[in-house]
């Protein structure tokens, strides 16, 4: 079954945010790529582009949260899951020729300082990812403080290596961070 218009708008916006950020994401492109009538955007998102972008960030964040849970289930330790995420980042950067980023990071960097709804959405996503990893670290026997610190570090590394890899058009920052994380989490 085809996605309904609202879902198409959200998914299309999420995909475009990953490559362009908030400011460069135009409504005309979203409407065209989502194959949606222009009036449908304001029907589904009366708050306009900001409301649509926040929904797209929430959707992207939810998918990443599920993806993180999957990595944690597939790997014997949180360390292995974190390294698997970084390995997948290397593959994604090479496959997309450094075009893809993280919708949460691009919006946080681009618009959260001036758009409260987007700041709420990006902040919620980042906290959720830290919480998922912290819970997993605690389940391995780490103290709540250590688990939270390591989870925060992992999310910072995940987001930071994407920015560096895109900026340098190289996977070297991901590879270097992976090596360090392997030692830290040993």
Overview of this protein structure:
The mean pLDDT is 95. The chain has a single domain, classed as Tetracycline Repressor, domain 2. With 186 residues, the protein is an all-alpha fold. 78% of the residues lie in helices and 0% in strands. It starts with a helix and ends with a helix. It contains 9 helices and no strands.
Please outline what is shown here.
This protein is mainly α. 78% of the residues lie in helices and 0% in strands.
What's the mean pLDDT score? 95
Assign the CATH architecture: Orthogonal Bundle
N-to-C order of helices and strands: HHHHHHHHH
The CATH class is identified as Mainly Alpha
- Largest sheet properties: none
Query: Spans of 5+ residues with little confidence (pLDDT < 50)?
Result: none
Distance between the termini: 46 Å
Q: Which of globular, elongated, flat, extended, rod-shaped describes the shape?
A: globular
Number of helices, counting only DSSP H or I runs of 4 residues or more: 9
Helix content: over 70%
According to CATH, the fold-level topology is Tetracycline Repressor, domain 2
User: Number of folding domains?
Assistant: 1
Q: List how many beta strands DSSP finds.
A: 0
What structural class results from the helix and strand content? mainly alpha
| The CATH superfamily title | Tetracycline Repressor, domain 2
Binned strand content: under 5%
- Radius of gyration computed on alpha carbons: 17 Å
